[in-house]
Every structure is written in structure tokens, then in C-alpha cells.
């Protein structure tokens, strides 16, 4: 089985977010980047499915050379090889086009992404890649099993679960429950240095989105504590100050 796992290089969750260029670009100066946590789940399940020589796991990232430490971490965790599309990830459409072009030329049985990246939380790439490749796409799966040429996946829906049987190939966005993220061991870290990391140039994509400006949330106001026996006061504050009722 050939599995492609799409990985993102995202700011650590403790990063203080600031912007440059008149608030149109994320300020990456001094920021610690990590492997997107939801992509780690996808990678862990891909490694489990190919365990024992049952296939290969290729990771793909759209990014500049600065993303290579994150790619090497994915190799240390257990990916077979890696591909970096040498371009700044402009938006979800741009990323999806790059991944689809590579996948189209390399015939994967299964493509996995995280449910979303933790920086933009768009959850768009998996669906776009599915459409571009004309294969089924399933969002936010909580369980994934493969048997022969079919997969069984579980999704959470209102009031229960949805269980789907899907023929290979398909693409899915993974979430908690699919697998436990793996921590690279010393052997994996050492071997990651010599595993193949192919760098390819991006295909041309007409950009159809331009960021006008980013804004950070307003600073949190001072907390007001209201005693449990002051219901009327609480209601008044929610009505006159918070304006939520």
C-alpha cells in the first residue's frame, strides 16, 4: 500500500501572534514551528497500516527550505520518504493543487491529512485534493481500518456515529481517535538524516485570494465576579455590559 500524508509546518501553540507589512503577513521572526498535531495523527495511522513491510508512507509539505526540520521529524517518526514542494503555501487552493499534481503522478492508494492545520483552521485541503483527483473525500474521521481494497471509517455525527465503507483510493482528514501520535526514538532520529527528501518545484496556480488584513482579537476585559445569590445583578451585567442577552 502506498500512502501519502500531507503535513503542515505550523507555529507552536504558545506563539505570540503578530503581523507585518501593514497587517497582511504573519510575522515569523522568532517563532518556533512544529509539525501540525492533527497531521501527526494521520502520520501515525499511516505508519501503523504499513507496519511490517506492508507498504510505504510518503510525506509531502508545501513550503520553503525552513520547513525541512519539520519534514525530518516526520521521517524520524517513521515515514519512508518525503517531498517538499518548494514554495510558500499561499492558501488552501494553492496547497491542494500542488499536492494533487504530485499525487496524480504517483498513484497513491490512500491520502491522509489532519482534520485542519492549527494556524488557519480551514479544513479545506482534503476536500479540494479529492475533487482535483476525482476520488472520494471524507472529512474529520475518528477511526480508519483497511481490509483489501476497501476502508471502513467512522465519523462523529449529531447524536451518534456514521460508519462508511469506501473503496481505495480516497482522501481523509484525520482527528483524535484515529491513532496516537508517535514520538521519534533515537534510531528514527538517526535514520531520518539519510532518508530521501525530494524537492520539487511548484506548478503554476492562478491565485484567487488576497489577504486584505489580519486582526488580532481585542484584549480580554477585566473579570467581574458575581455572587451566586445575585442573579438579578448577573442578568443586568449580561444585558447591559456583555450584551449577550
From TrEMBL:
Keyword line: Electron transport, Transport
Record-level Gene Ontology MF annotations: electron transfer activity
Keyword Electron transport: yes
Domain (Electron transfer flavoprotein alpha/beta-subunit N-terminal): residue spans on this chain: 23-209
Family recorded in the similarity comment: Belongs to the ETF beta-subunit/FixA family.
Entry protein name: Electron transfer flavoprotein subunit beta
Amino acid at each position: 500500500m502506498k500512502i501519502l500524508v500531507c503535513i503542515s509546518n505550523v507555529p507552536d501553540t504558545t506563539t505570540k501572534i503578530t503581523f507585518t507589512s501593514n497587517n497582511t503577513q504573519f510575522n515569523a521572526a522568532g517563532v518556533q514551528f512544529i509539525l501540525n498535531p492533527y497531521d501527526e495523527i494521520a502520520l501515525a495511522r499511516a505508519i501503523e497500516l504499513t507496519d511490517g513491510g506492508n507498504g510505504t508512507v510518503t510525506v509531502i509539505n508545501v513550503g520553503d527550505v525552513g520547513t525541512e526540520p519539520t519534514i525530518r521529524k516526520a521521517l524520524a517518526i517513521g515515514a519512508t520518504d518525503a517531498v517538499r514542494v518548494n514554495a510558500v503555501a499561499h492558501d488552501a487552493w494553492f496547497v491542494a493543487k500542488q499536492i494533487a499534481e504530485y499525487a496524480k503522478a504517483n498513484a497513491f492508494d490512500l491520502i491522509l491529512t489532519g482534520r485542519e492545520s492549527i494556524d488557519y483552521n480551514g479544513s479545506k485541503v482534503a476536500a479540494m485534493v479529492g475533487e482535483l483527483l476525482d476520488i472520494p473525500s471524507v472529512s474529520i474521521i475518528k477511526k480508519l481500518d483497511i481490509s483489501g481494497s476497501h476502508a471502513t471509517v467512522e465519523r462523529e455525527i449529531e447524536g451518534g456515529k456514521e460508519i462508511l465503507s469506501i473503496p481505495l483510493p480516497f482522501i481523509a482528514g484525520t482527528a483524535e481517535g484515529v491513532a496516537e501520535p508517535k514520538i521519534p526514538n533515537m534510531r528514527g532520529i538517526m535514520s531520518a538524516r539519510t532518508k530521501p527528501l525530494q524537492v520539487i518545484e511548484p506548478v503554476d496556480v492562478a491565485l484567487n485570494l488576497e489577504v486584505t488584513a489580519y486582526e488580532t482579537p481585542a484584549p480580554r476585559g477585566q473579570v467581574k465576579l458575581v455572587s451566586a445569590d445575585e442573579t438579578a445583578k448577573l442578568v443586568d451585567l449580561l444585558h447591559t455590559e456583555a450584551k449577550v442577552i
